[in-house]
Amino acid sequence: MKTLHTLFTGKTATQVVLLLFLLLLWEILFRARLVNAVLFPSFSSVLAVLRTEYMTLLRRLGVTLLYIGYGLGISIGLAALFTFLAIRSPACASILEMILAMMHPVPSVALLPLLIIWFGIGPLSLVIVIVNSALWPLFLNCYTGFRTVHQTYLEVGRNIGLKGVRLMASIMLPSALPYLLTGFEISWARSWRAAIAVELVFGAATTSGGIGWTIYMSYFDIEMELMIAAILTIALTGVVMERLVMDQIEKYTVVRWGMVQQTETLKVG
Question: Is pTM beyond 0.85 here?
Fold first, then answer.
């Protein structure tokens, strides 16, 4: 009962009501013939495509998620390594800060023509683009989070015998966790944008084609229902990731520890 009450009150209820209103408005605009039926299909027709093509969309989504997973995994490993080096060595920190300042503003798609010349149109170029998109915000947040750990926490850790890797794992990592979660959320979103952009601009960048490839092909075939269904699939994936993964991680870590508050519990006055 408590779960159902939470689901239909507060932030979730507001979001559901807004979504239903927008979908209803979408259908009304189509039924009233206020939009071009060819270029702006009804929500009911898009829903029908979602029902009939869901297996194909899920398969394409899985391909894109697989390569995003590769890119994020590499990015997490590199971000951890760079953060460790930057904290341990001022010289490494200076070098990595310079590289971060140069690479962070560069759009990953801008590197794609060069990558295609070097590696061709294929999975390797796609993964490199995803890594470049995800690595720098992740490293920036990790590095900032570890640098902002309160000195008192470090002194307490040293007083009880912690040092080196144990100090980082027991004191610095939990203290920096809000920054790490924020960095991961940003990297996740940027990975999606990079992967979809590569497939949209250059077509199938993988051997079997991802969800971006579906949008790319439906554009040429003018299959508006399929195109919008693929876009909605991406949006729903983002919602699932946010509500079922990130929110739960935050709930049982930084919220439970009192480091941040959930949006629904914030009160003024």
Answer: no
